[in-house]
Amino acid sequence: MLDHVMRFDDDRQIFAAGDTTTDDLLSGMEIPLSLTFQLTRNCNFKCVYCSEPPGIRSRSLDEILVMVDKLSGMRRIIFSGGEPMAYKHFWRVLEHAQGKFDRIVLSTNASFITRDAAARLKDLVHYIDITVDGPRRQHNAIRGNYDKVIRGLSRVAEEGIPLSVICVYMGGNKKVINYIAHTGDIFGAKKVKILTTIPKGYSRNLFEDFTTGDELDQLYSYLQTEKQRNGWTPRITIADWMKIGPGHAILVEPDGRAIASPVWSEPDCLEPFGNLHETTATDLWNHFPYKRNHLNKYLERTMMVVE
Asked: What HEC string does 40-71 produce?
């Protein structure tokens, strides 16, 4: 049933299922819709809000490839980190994943994307997520390496690889948030994704930057007006974690542990529920406690969307 009803709309970068209810969709699912696979926790950036800091060792290449095989048939896999392109077997894993998933996505800081790498990625991924957290001054205060990010972003755009621009909305860039939408528009992004901080990892000390409710409603109205006024082409999505609900994201850490995130009631804002190294993708899905939130989020039924 799921195969006939659900599809990925590449122009809007969204899973679509029409009017089919979440419950009906879930009844036909045996594995996750989308999953983020962390190849490494190593990273060459030091983002102040990082929710996935170093400290977990990657399994061997052979073990990583077996775990990728276990996920075969899933609608979308997102390779991330840390910085996934810093993983020494990055290209080998990406090549191994070909033909196993409807959509293969790279979530990267773009600093490793040379012209040659961009040309190679064009045949290996369906789209790329790149984070830009403001103009030069604001971005460098939050993430650093602005020039490397913009160079990588431009190379992706030059190769014609579909992309989205991500921004983490926080005190240091709230007043320049329209820059993010403008950057996405300049580089032809399909989508601009505005996230808020998660009290997890390094972000656990950034509670003053956690945003929900009225402020995000006002941001939505502002961006809706600005999109129309400026003629921006990307869709803009805003994640209000309180509307999305807990545990929507499934992350497989470099050692194979599967976690649901974010889960506010847990001390580290995450809830382990299995290990892909030790079990199957179907077993993980059966033990995953947040299926409705997972599906509703990726269908954008709980997102704030500026079309």
From this structure: CCCCCCCCCCCCCCCCCCCCCHHHHHHHHHHC
